[in-house]
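User: Hey, quick favor. My workstation is busy. Could you predict this chain's structure for me?
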Amino acid sequence: MTRILVTGATGFIGKILCRELLDADYEVVATTRDSLGKDRLDGVKLLHVPDIGVYENWETSLDGVDVVAHLAGRAHVMKERARDPLAAFRKVNTEGTERLANAAAKSGVKRIVYLSTIKVNGGSTSFSPFTEEDPPAPQDAYALSKWEAEQALFGVAENADLEAVVIRPPLVYGEGVKGNFLSLLKICKLSLPLPLGGAANQRSLIYVGNLVDIIIKCLEHPGAAGQVFLARDGEDLSTAELIRRLAGALERPARLFSVPKPLLGLAGGLTGKKDMVSRLLDSLSVDDGKIRRKLGWVPPYAMEQGLSRTAAWFLSL
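Assistant: No problem, here it is.
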């Protein structure tokens, strides 16, 4: 039986990954910041790691571990409170990842799969989708720290008997989603009017069930070693079309009207929501050809299924 350490196991993606790993007969060990046992996962051995950015006892945590799925990190936030955001991101995402990789190499771990972000490639696309061959162009402290973490991980792996794999997903949605996508679900349920009817952008998304399938594929497939992969559900949507589909899945009418993009941008700037407006109107498309060719990966869930399952979960709350 393969023993795996999952960091970030009690998060949105981690919980679903642990469940799928157990179903695939992995022995799952997972880290959690919770010291009171509130995050208990059936069938999973939990290890208390209060701060991955300074944790030094990885060798003990990695005892007998064959592979690692590294999902934990300091997430991008809308309202940053750290005095030095880059230092805060680097402490957890870059230095924490490098420390884990070094310990994994010393402990005989065979492979680490690291969950990075498409933001390493950049914040938006114009004429062609992002590919793995594009030069990294991180636009903020979060993305830079993840890019530096990728480099640190591959640097450790190159000098040790350790295989590294990096996955850069776009926006992830699904059961348990939080943040902006959850807010969008709430708006669609209320059928609130939105000035996004003219949004003709193209956004790649990935359903959490598809992403978890990719993580497991990257843990197991020999051809994944040393690679970076981009992935998506298989189709891109404009923001307007996403709202229509979500509203349909929620059995609510989509109330959209059109406002010129420059006016929306101006309104975003005046209200301090420029970044939010950009994410709603800009394109961010990825080419998933490499993972399909190299690993033979096919999404187990169509986007329509993913949106439907997400809507059903939301309505059950």
